[in-house]
Design brief:
alpha/beta; Rossmann fold; seven-stranded parallel β-sheet; 7 strands; oxidoreductase; SDR_fam; oxidoreductase activity; SDR_DHRS6-like
Length: 199
């Protein structure tokens, strides 16, 4: 399969690229750096990317920005970033990308465990994650030409270690990637794939 991976240079993205590349052709896209460049917060940028890449069998997003901050410290810009990038940016990957999918293709987005297990400071992240999961579930009822799913990672050990956190409750990026591979190669539709379930 030909897979367009957005956010390929991130911690999870790199692991997903490595896991998929064993059997599939991975086309990397990032906000900056190697591969194609795309800003998922900008519809024109997404359209330009899709025009450049052409038809694919799967689109996977491990991208999406949202800030972690106490509720009383969140600004309008924090809400707008989560809504325009993490939420609508990924939704637009499906809205625009479905026209570039080969028959039986799939789109896989990224939410996160904070949708159902929030913590102090996760307000806008939990908001975007929960909205993504609900949108995928509802949209799948009307999408019969493609499969549409979302992966919900838990905290990634590599990121936790980088932040000086205890990694005991995390999941490695390589193990997290297994849920994305399942979404791309499986038959599920309208599902939230909890990453720990695929280890």
């Amino acid at each position: 399969m030909k897979v367009l991976l957005i956010g390929a240079s991130g911690t999870i993205g790199q692991a997903v690229a490595k896991a998929l590349a064993t059997e599939h052709k991975v086309i990397a896209a990032n906000y900056s750096g190697e591969g194609f460049n795309v800003d998922i917060g900008d519809q024109a940028s997404i359209s330009a990317l899709l025009e450049q890449v052409g038809k694919v069998d799967a689109i996977v997003s491990t991208a999406g920005l949202a800030n972690f901050a106490p509720l009383n410290e969140l600004s309008d810009a924090d809400y707008e970033l989560a809504l325009n990038n993490k939420l609508m940016g990924q939704i637009n990957l499906m809205r625009l990308g479905k026209e570039y999918l080969n028959k039986g293709g799939s789109v896989t987005l990224t939410s996160g465990v904070l949708s159902r297990e929030p913590m102090s400071g996760s307000g806008v992240i939990s908001m975007a994650n929960g909205a993504l999961e609900s949108f995928v579930k509802a949209s799948a009822l009307e999408l019969d030409a493609i499969r549409f799913n979302v992966v919900a990672p838990i905290f990634v050990k590599e990121t936790m270690a980088m932040m000086g956190m205890d990694t005991a409750g995390g999941l490695s990026a390589d193990d997290t990637a297994k849920a994305y591979v399942a979404a791309v190669t499986g038959s599920m539709h309208g599902q939230t794939l909890d990453a720990p379930d695929y280890v």
